[in-house]
Amino acid sequence: MSLTLQKQEGRAGLALISPTLVITLVVVVLPLLWAVMLAFQDVRLINIRSKGLFGGYTLENFRYVLSEPGFWPALVNTLVYTVAGTALSIAVGLVAALALRDRFKGRTLVRASILIPYVAPVVAVAFLWETMLNPQYGIVNTWLSQPIAFLSQAKGTFLGVEVPVALLTVIAFEAWRYFPFAFLFILARLQALPADLEEAAVVDGATPTQRFRYVIMPQLWRIVALLAVLRFVFTFTKFDDVYLLTGGGAGTEVVSVRVYNFLTSRDDIGAAAAQAIVLAVVLVVFLALYLRFFAGGEREQNR
Amino acid sequence: MSRTAEPALAAGGGERPASARRGRPMSRDRVERAALRVLKPLVIAVFVAVTAFPFLYMVMLSVRDIQELILDPGSLWPRRLTLDTYADVLTRQGFLTFMRNSAIVAVASVAVTLLISIPGAYAVARLRFFGHRQVHFLFLAVYLFPAIVLAIPLFVLFTMMGLRGSLFGLILVYIAQTVPVTVYMLRNYFETVPRSVEEAAAIDGCTRLSTIWRVVLPLSKPALMATGLYVFMIAWNEFLFALLFLVERRESWTVSLGLSQLAGSIEIPTTVLMAGSVVLTLPIVIVFFASERLLTEGLTAGAEKG
Questions:
Q1: Would you say the pTM of this structure is higher than 0.80?
Q2: Which value does ipTM take for this structure?
Q3: In this structure, are residues A133 and A150 in contact, taking their beta carbons and an 8 Å threshold?
């Protein structure tokens, strides 16, 4: 009797989950496997029908993609953009969460205001930044003594140091748009912290910065580590933001924008796929390194 | 100074901080507290300015003539209010059509995603079936997997099948990308529905499907709302797949795609496009704040467990 009930339950479970599995399989998993095959074939949109799914495998795409002069700078850009964007968005989100931790009049409104950049459509906010930073009629440039072409100028000097203007602007955009994401998670964690630890610290005479350093921060490391992984993964392969702001020009080309250009304007599917695979592999390598070194160290700190 | 930074926490007994403070009026504690009292409102003000100002600027630009912007780019308030920009963007630039397309895509994605993920989430929450432990891994993988990799085979496939330019293909992709997350969100909620209620329904003669329909769903309304709005926001805001699939057919453009395509042209005044940005942003902001508490709780539910 119990066996048949169990069997029945198993069958019902599979039946109920099957639509979910079918659509993920057909629209996500199988296409991904195909993307891997495409990376090893010499295919363009014109000859795709004559090439079979299998066979004709070659490493030519990878050799071609890796030897292109633009690839390595794009990979470096991707890395700089991702690391800086991730770190800044988490740091700013942490400050915002700490500032909004205690109740005050109008906190709900401030919270709402902080969340808008993250919620608003990326196309709208990218266009907004473009307009605000426009050298001719952008409002930001009316505040400066000399207009700066933030989004179309690859290099500029700031206090005598040469800086990559457009890349820094794109990173600032990233921090501005995604700090609310970190803010939400850190604030939720902050509000769930038990009060007694901090009260004990106050009794022991700990100053606010000491409480932050020795009581609050140790309890936040895990959520910060999780946020770092999430933001790194999302930013590393991000396409929209850079494409909309600069189109990949002015020294801001990241690998995902290159993939898009290979796919559409060059119509080279094989090379686009190869490049995307390289990007994904590099991402996995970085994640593995991160988990190996940082996650282990963090666990020890918590102990 | 007897009090250094380190022993403050380690000290068990020792001197009482209150008396120490009385003894030294400018103790570190008092300095820090005073500094924070000043800094905190300042920091909050900066955050509000940095996040709210750009959107205020967006609205202000959308209600003025382009001549005014070029003559006086530094002014925030328009001298002469006009709504012609909105009339222009909605009719002449075709944003009404784009909004219709976006609405179709978003509503269809929400409906089908819920239809698929409700039974899926119920199965994961309640039933032990072959592989029910492994599905989490699949969902996490789909959630984290880069869209740009997926874009290549789907672009090729849709080109071969002649699905480019049709909203149907786009809806299919949005469903596939959101279903894993919505199954996860709903599952968390379904698990909080007491089993005894379901068992009572079963004893009263409900089949499994009618138990879901009559007992679980009415109890899960907030979660359904939050999940639906999450899908709506993704579908309304999405850009990459809309660009890849729809760009050649202007009558199929979504609002996001329409704004991004028109933003490059010189003939359309920036103020008109700003009106388009407002039209694109407003529905999402309204939807979000109507449901903000539901959404953020669902999104950060995992964080509280630590």
A1: yes
A2: 0.88
A3: yes
